[in-house]
Amino acid sequence: MAGEPQADCVFCKIVSGDIPATVVRRTDRTLTFRDINPQAPTHLLVIPRVHHPNAAELAAAEPGIAAELLVEAGAAAGDDGLESYRLIFNTGADAGQTVFHAHVHVLGGEPLTEGLV
Ligand code: AMP
Ligand code: ZN
């Protein structure tokens, strides 16, 4: 059920502490940690503690938490000294989503000149 922990979800396991992560920020409703396979000098993931399969479904169900992801993303970028950064929400396998627990990527620390937009 949406919002409930999912036994097969790697990010739910990070929230519960069953899988370790390099956590850099936590709030009552979110967790921010370093991506295990960084694509830039700074590559963070901000996730809600509750399970929703993607960002849009999170925003529909819990708009306050969705907004908090963005606040935390900016704060985490600032913690790493970034003035410029890119936020990415992959949604669906064809867009590259591999973990079906809502998250936003925070990328930066080098010029990000590649991209579709
Ligand atoms: P996405 O492809 O948008 O679903 O992003 C999932 C991200 O989670 C990928 O960039 C993975 O490298 C990252 N990831 C998967 N497992 C872990 C983990 N145990 N700790 C940190 N990051 C992870
Ligand atoms: Zn989950």
From TrEMBL:
Motif (Histidine triad motif): 101-105
SUPFAM superfamilies tied to this protein: HIT-like
UniProt domain HIT: residue ranges: 10-117
Organism superkingdom: Bacteria
PROSITE patterns, per the entry: HIT_2
Gene3D superfamilies: HIT-like
Active site: H103
Single Gene Ontology MF annotation: catalytic activity
Pfam families in alphabetical order: HIT
The protein's name in its UniProt record: Histidine triad nucleotide-binding protein
